[in-house]
Amino acid sequence: MEHITLLLGIVIITALVFDFTNGFHDTANAMATTISTGALKPKTAVAMSAVLNLVGAFMSVEVAKTISKGLINEEGIQPEVIFAALVGAILWNLVTWLVGLPSSSSHALMGGLIGAAVASAGIGAVNGSVVVTKVLIPAVAAPIVAGVAAMLAARLTYKLGGKVGERTSTKGYRAGQIASAGLVSLAHGTNDAQKTMGIITLALVAGGALESGANPPVWVIVSAGLAIALGTSLGGWRIIRTMGSGLTDLQPQQGFAAQTSAASVILASSSLGFSLSTTHACSGAVMGAGLGRKGGVVRWSTATRMFIAWGLTLPAAALVASGAELVMRTGDVGVAAVAVFLVASCFAIWVISRRQVVDHHNVNEVEPAAVEEPGVVTTAMAAVTVPPTVAAAGTTAAVTDEDLKATIPAAAPTPAAPAAAV
């Protein structure tokens, strides 16, 4: 019993560490567009997000129930399985943060849980119907729904805003962005903080500290909320840079449309108990808003890298978690080895990240690799000089001094008269 109690404590601490990484990994979901458009200063935006994530953690426990009761069968699951799942999820979070790719912390956790459960008790330990209906289908639907909604919302905001001055419109939408960013942070707390609540509750059930089917205790809710808020307060600047300016260039109108659409999708999924990826919803909304402005573009090279990371999240976390579970079967030595490996890997990733620091000072600087080369059509159009526009008969065209200078050739210089002979 002492061994189980000690292991259970390690699992709970590791779960809170995952919650912490989830916080700074997903700060970009709420605040990337607000920071990139200048609606809020970076540090102010991050502090606001941290507070609202904490508040959101107390609003619901539906997603926590999905994790603790529905995803895998509780019978026969030991605390070692939960620990292995968290190892896979934490390492995937840190690797994708290091390269600045928005990936799903939720899917990393669920992938780790599925991989560890299969390695421990076989494929029958996983509830396949729950995985399909509450994980895989929302994973595909969320970015599409949020993206289409954000694109339509962006077009609507530009249409409505065209009747007022640009300065007034920009100021108003920046204020709206702050409100919508707060809503996304609140929604993130209601969805992502609950995943850690669910995993801790599952560990307590597996360790015999709670009865099967129990809801998360109050201390679990409080600790999970504080952990994700603390992680959010650190920023996660690498992913903020990618989502804020690496995917597309956003104006305040687009930022408002993206955040409002993403928040609506996340809050709806939380109320239904879907373990939705807030990263998928927010990234899809950013791309949709980018296409919602006339002339707006999406940097598809960055988006493709992000899509690849999304596809790898579940299997990569599952693979690491299953390997950790197999190592821990050797007993206390195996558990200690996995713990040392996790700590060493986290430290190594942090050391590598210090080689090129991204923080609130340079978060809005776009890396050269993020700027795509112009295509063939764009290059050809740029090479063609457009002739001056000729006014139609019966109309007048305003011609400026600069137009005249550009179209009328300068007079040839007059040769100097020969000097008179003395």
From TrEMBL:
User: What stretches pass through the bilayer?
Assistant: 6-24, 45-61, 81-101, 108-130, 136-158, 218-240, 307-327, 333-352
Name the keywords, alphabetized. Answer: Membrane, Phosphate transport, Transmembrane, Transmembrane helix, Transport
Pfam families, A to Z? PHO4 (PF01384)
Judging by the UniProt lineage, the source's domain of life is Bacteria
- Principal place of residence: membrane
Q: Where in the cell is it found?
A: Membrane
Membrane topology note: Multi-pass membrane protein
Question: Does the keyword Transport feature in the UniProt annotation?
Answer: yes
Keyword Membrane attached: yes
Q: Which family does it belong to?
A: Belongs to the inorganic phosphate transporter (PiT) (TC 2.A.20) family.
Recorded protein name is: Phosphate transporter
- What is the source species? Streptomyces goshikiensis
